[in-house]
## 1
Amino acid sequence: MLNFLKVLGVGKNQDATDLLTEDLALVEQRVEPAKKAAQVIYKKLACCLQSQQGLDADKRTKKLPLMMLSVSMAESFKDFDVDSPIRRVLEMCCCMETLLAKTLAEFEVQLEKEVLEPLNKLSEEDLPEILKNKKLFAKLTTDWHAARNKAQASTGQAQTKQDGLREEVEEAWRKLENIKDQYSADLYHFSSKEDSYANYFIRLLELQAEYHKNSLDCLEKNITELKENHNQSAPRLSGPSGKVYGAPLLSHLQHSGRQIATPIQECVTMLLQRSLKEEGLFRLAAAASVVRSLKGSLDSGNIDHSEFSSDPHAVAGALKSYLRELPEPLMTFELYNDWFKAAGEKEVSDKLEQLKVVLGKLPPENYNNLRYLVQFLSCLSEHQDVNRMSPSNIAIVLGPNLLWPRTEGVDSLLDMASASSVQVVSVIEPLIQHANSLFPEAVDFEIPEPPAGVDPTETKFHRCRIGNQGGRTIFPFCTQPFVIEGKI
């Protein structure tokens, strides 16, 4: 019996740590601090978020304070006349705050996925499991010591009793060895993952740096452009003549004998010449004097394309001005709620089906002009890698000029502000993205001959056609025409 106790180390005063190697004993000391650090930093970092955890980027954007600021700006600039410098600056600021809110929402989604969730898992699942095995290891070590001491004290007693106590010691040792192996494996795993755990905090700094850089780049570039355009502009002292601008769409079309409103058709024609790759089209403001001159030409019916087509931002500004000066939005007051209900469908197929239903309710003149405009905007977005005007960006800057509610009372003003900055994007963006599907009719874009001395390839086509024809999608704005077989 004495030999058996000697083999089991009866003469040693061991605790749980003594049964581990020196390296593992050192690693063991890091587990509890790592759990506390992960737990505390997770809680403090979660408090830094400006939006609710678990939401996607779009839902976060709507709840951010920056988005609320954008809505307030949208509500404010509607009170100014269309040529007010304050309105122009507020409109641009509104768009910028929306973009900053989207950038922040995307950052917080990424932060949650790459830092917060791993830290929470580490503190609430991975490390507690190791600490649980540590506690069990300590308990079984104590049980083994107790059984061993009891066996030692039984010397001189009956052999049968000594045999029973020996079995207890052996059983306690087996249990201890099993948990020791498991606990050691846990510690080895923790040791191998320490660098990965440390990288969570490095990734936090990287994401913060990337977010602040993107926000700063966006602000610096647009502030510079905004100042340049603002310094060139002068306040307008008199309103438009009313011959085209400010006139109801139907009365203008009947008076002119057109199907497409003069400002829409003429401005699109000029933009098609060389402006599809112009960065920030519809977003960047032009000199107010040039825009006024072009609007006067469109009102009088005497449009010299060569005079204005070289200033695409002025052309885009004149087009935006026409849309927002319509007495009723191109997408109509009556269908205001129908558009948002259709765009609220979760499934893309359901959304497109409902948008088609609403499009079918538009008066023919509104439908024809909206179709013409949206199909051009779809072409513009094809060059988003160069012009930076994705369907979303186009929707942000043009949406408030296409759809707004009747402004009667405080509630309607709030609705208008919301639509200007948030909701209307969800309507206009899918119209542009799925223009071919929603507007199956092909549109002829008449483009004049290029000016003397201009490379003809820069003007793309002199007669272009966009739309679905017999299952083929035609892309007209290329130096050589091509088609993609099959519907998209």
Note: The radius of gyration is 35 Å.
## 2
Amino acid sequence: MASEEQLKTIEGAKVLMVGAGGIGCELLKTLALSGFRDIHIIDMDTIEVSNLNRQFLFRQSHVGQSKAKVAREAILKFRPNINITPYHANVKDPMFNMEFFKEFNVVLNGLDNLDARRHVNRLCLAAEVPLVESGTTGFLGQVTVHVKGKTECYECQPKPTPKTYPVCTITSTPSKNQGKLVVRFGRMGMSTQDFVHCIVWAKDLLFAKLFGDRTRENDLYVRSNDADGSVKHSEDIFEQSPDEDLEQYGRKIYDNIFGHSIEATLSNEETWRNRNKPKPIYIRDILPHKIAKPNGSLEENCAIDDTNVSAMASLGLKNPQDVWSLEESTRIFMEALRLFTEKRKKV
């Protein structure tokens, strides 16, 4: 039990919490229940369906909303007399400078990438504010305390570059600074790490959703639209209906992933206040007509042994080092889907 003096210190403390995800939800709950009365939260992300299995302050109805703001609302339902200030923003924004950090008695990190952690660590050192750093690896958690002049800082020991990327950190919201997924097909500038995350997203989520075991859990959530533009959360766009041929099926997937889902993300204007907006892409704008003759006729292409041919070779693209145009990338997507699906039917 805390002494009366300790309780007064806790009640009078001003706390900054960076990150309102898996760790952040637990931190905020613990802070509120421990007696802290002035808590500030910084998080640039919005809530996704894949967050709901572990970030217990959020519900299905919160998808698309600010994590920091929804977390505040959830805590105030059972601790209405405390002050919680949310910032739907990037901790690297100029407003969160050294003077801002000096306002706090302690900073708690609940981040999922090294770049942001290093940034917060340097600000805490400059402002001479204690930092409580926390993270997870699989089922294991780590907590370290960093106080200038008393302990080593977060960066005093080199941190290894991650060789694997937990699926829970791969999201559909573009975010170069957070090291998460940037919208595919090059609609925004990307760093090397962004490319790695794109590959992981495609391999572990999209590919598994298209061709993997449908009974296995998959965090990929794609907002789908019907003909009149209304969102249908219950529809599984990855299910090919009996009246769809392969091209119709491919166009549906393409439009929902790169079009409707991006438009739904753009509807939250607050997310893009300090970030470049992605541009939705619809296949009708790239390939307006049915793919009858990508390189000769489809029937002629199918005469070759499709079990060993690649989509690139099938379309006559010979140099794998070439930078594909958007149209070429789209044709590759459609042809790869056709080849793989037809090969699977033969097995």
Note: The chain has two domains: 4-146, 167-346.
## 3
Amino acid sequence: MQVVDKLQSGSKSKREHWRTELPTTGLGVGVIEEMKDVKSNDADWKGKCSGTVYIGGSESEGHFSLINEASSMFAHTNPLHLDVFQSVARFEAEVVAMTADLLGSKEKASGGQVCGNMTSGGTESILLAVKTSRDYMKAKKGITRPEMIIAESAHSAYDKAAQYFNIKLRRVPVNKEFKADVKAIRKQINRKTILIVGSAPGYPHGIIDPIEELGKLADSYGICLHVDLCLGGFVLPFARKLGYPIPPFDFTVRGVTSISADVHKYGLAPKGTSVVLYRNHDIRKVSNITEWSGGLYVSPTIAGSRPGGVIAGAWAAMMSLGQQGSKIPFYCTMPEASKLSSTLLLGEHKKNHGSIEDDSERVRIHFTFSAEFFNIEIYRITAISNGRIKEIPELFIIGNPDMTIVAFGSAVLDIFEVNDIMSGKGWHLNALQRPNSIHICVTLQHVPVVDAFLQDLREAVQTVKENPGPISGGLAPIYGAAGKMPDRGMVQDLLVNYMDGTC
């Protein structure tokens, strides 16, 4: 309970002045000023967060401004009302089709019937894929007590799906390369198995599972295979075209029955936009209600009403950038511009990817955000981070990252204490377990700050090395305690109690 109390203490103090009822007199347009004031307390995420914000530049300029305008234009719309908001229905259909095209829908091996829908995020996409697999396998094989098999590196959304849809979850360890262990998965398959899972890449370590081998396994047993491309869906297709050694991962792999891909990550779309795709219409199942007094009802996702604004924003993001890109300006300060010019604009990519206009205090930079530019830069920054972290003797890299995530741990230091020091420097990294480690998910926000990140990391390691032990207010003891608790039910209770104290 001391752990829970420590987790909750900070949130309780923040909540003391939160409103619990409507104001007697409305604030009118003055509410915007209050919102700005509240927003000023948010963390400084510009270049400081692992993942989180994938778009480069400032939130009030460039690509940010474009998708904000597109979203606000359709903020009142709801694709549930297809007859009224035909524009949003079209946007959704085109986002799905364009995403499917990136993931092999037009290749002969896909079967030519790939279909899908937009969702609120990767978790909903995964939930729908699992439910669809359950329903499809019940119709195909009569399985009424379904089971699914995942690697321990697979996303926690599968745990949610198992709870929601009454599916037994079998979790298997990863192999020595931190990839899904195909042999271990094969041993767990039985007559109740409906689904196996592969990630491209996995969230913890940025490592791509052997999708082709998993596809052969699923096909041989006549079961479903879902590929989690939530992180990789808008990176790997372009990286493959650029000649990076990317193993097969999409609908060209026989046995893949569904795919999830987040547009709001590397698709640079507004938050709340993902896509779930199915190999054909027989696999996709939707909720059709025929006996309701309110009329005939069809809903292809978990939600009925959905925000049309973010769908429009996703369409705008994809259409504005395209395959070859378009020049989108944003402003930054002279120091930031200096770093960007040295890494991006004055090198071999200047002719194709950028230019600078100096207006003294602030610099207007025109970037061509294309597949080539985006992948070269995030892969380059990832490689730099990977290489320089390897040079820190107290740290080691988890596996061999395939994409834009670098996870690292330590055999001689408490890595969570290192994370606490980094948090004190303003960095927001992700703490992992099995093994204890932290990771950074590289985005365009990190291009101008990679040197600062690595310098702070070296200093954090040195600080912990010279003064081991938790810092005041740090979370290292909590992570350590949670990892050592043999009763995992206690850990679940800890998280639930923490959640109850925050919302």
Note: The chain has two domains: 86-320, 372-494.
## 4
Amino acid sequence: MSTSANDGDDHGDIFLDEDDIVEEINVDEEDLPDADEDADSDAEVFDDADDSMHIFTGHTDEVYTVACSPTDAQLVATGAGDDKGFLWKIGQGDWAFELQGHKETVSSVAFSSDGQLVASGSLDGVIQVWDISSGNLKCTLDGPGAGIEWIKWHPRGHLVLAGSEDASVWMWNADNSAFLNTFSGHASAVTCGDFTPDGKTICTGSDDASLRIWNPRTGESNHVVKGHYYHSEGLTCMTITADSSLVLTGSKDGSVHIVNIATGKVVTSLTSHTDSIECIGLSSSAPWAATGSMDQKLIIWDLQHSLTRCTCEHEEGVTCLSWLGASRFVATGCVDGKVRIWDSLSGDCVKTFVGHKHAIQSLAVSSNRSHLVSVSLDGTARAFEIDEFQ
């Protein structure tokens, strides 16, 4: 085995014996990094490399959920397996407020649209609502017979919607602690759901592989979407278009379907992923959607033509995503503990944030779009600066 070194001076051939080989590595041309990726890959050598500008370490167990206040650019809520929720502020390491009282994992946190209230939901089946200005517990909402899967606020009022592991969906008025309605019909855990942006309709998805579209006033199902033309396995995530006309759903079966909310009909299907869809999000500036999957891909879709615009490869499964405001950039959280920023026009990874030691569980963007907050199974929340991606 010989190698030649030609750098202007001819040193002749340098001969290596078999004994000199320390390790033989087969390199696929496609695996070679581009020049601009070198900076990111170098960071992998150092376990202590950390790109975050703030680390929240108040939790003592895996952190599962994060939300940023819509009105206070510094305020963040997180929930974890230590049965606690916390409010804390980006850049203010000495300030934290514990959302006390839950008996099990805090699985969901959500701010009201006016930023006045924050709700924390737990696997104990209870939701607590806190008044942010006073720091007081405003009310405790209960009813579901099992853990809270997710919490959503009405786009204009203080109505709280939550889906439970016990196949039920509940709605309350947080201003007067009043139970308003329960939505029954799913046969398994309700894994995702939301109000439409106009506030007039509710969409929920379940592990029973169905989507239900509800009338919030009557509690009746307008439509049940399931069967041959729809998902074959449980739904995992959903997002609703700004005009309240379409809902996009992702499933364990790797497919994404788009349903007309008024008619309950499947409009089109997006099929390129080969494993469970974990997250989905709509661009606010173009007719594009982003989906992340355990198949290690983020796919940007052109919704007008139901075609793939670009596929963004990751080293491990993609667990969460967030469009960065109205920009063309999408952030992803990954099982490998990295947070990446992607340009949806080119499909290029333009930034990789390191610091977390375990899988990312959730992402949120601050109201002024200057920080991205990620939470991880490593028990920390980290804030990264994203001003350059406005």
Note: The chain has a mean pLDDT of 91.
